[in-house]
Give the backbone structure.
Amino acid sequence: AQSVAQPEDQVNVAEGNPLTVKCTYSVSGNPYLFWYVQYPNRGLQFLLKYITGDNLVKGSYGFEAEFNKSQTSFHLKKPSALVSDSALYFCAVRDPEGDAGNNRKLIWGLGTSLAVNP
Amino acid sequence: DAEITQSPRHKITETGRQVTLACHQTWNHNNMFWYRQDLGHGLRLIHYSYGVQDTNKGEVSDGYSVSRSNTEDLPLTLESAASSQTSVYFCASSRTGLNTGELFFGEGSRLTVL
């Protein structure tokens, strides 16, 4: 069955240090991968996506993610964390065996809470 | 600017009552989705629509219904509210095509069923 795993419920990092939020997936076919961020009491916001091409994709707020097909991973990274990056982060994959056409639903991870300490 | 709005943002109701959560988007997106977010469960898809008059059940659709009479709106109705439906509900929309995974979310509606 298709699935997305975020193995860490919480990640703590000091401000200024690099951060990594992990995501692994299990889908058939070529996955489309996404990262979203949710600030407290807000809706989710799109950060970045991998569809095809360069394995390193850059997104909003200085975040980037690396697609690794052999490890079936799509880890979110940032070279220098900010306190304002503290939020809940969701990884998602588009199900390639979903509905017909281009309207395929997302499979979501359970989220990772990132805390950046001053 | 285009946006997606949900109302009400907070609602308290009693078991057995019918509740409708509104979702309105001005992106002119064909795809619209309703999710619920609960601790330990992440986001779970309730219903979704790929266009006017199209509605589909998600993974947790029991006790919920939607209708799509125009592009802009996808109201979510709880026919007879239950305490298990206490949750935060998010509406989202997206374009068709390869950008389908780029969802635009509303700010959420927090529902408490007593």
Observations:
- The two ends of chain A are 41 Å apart (CA to CA).
- The mean pLDDT of chain A is 91.
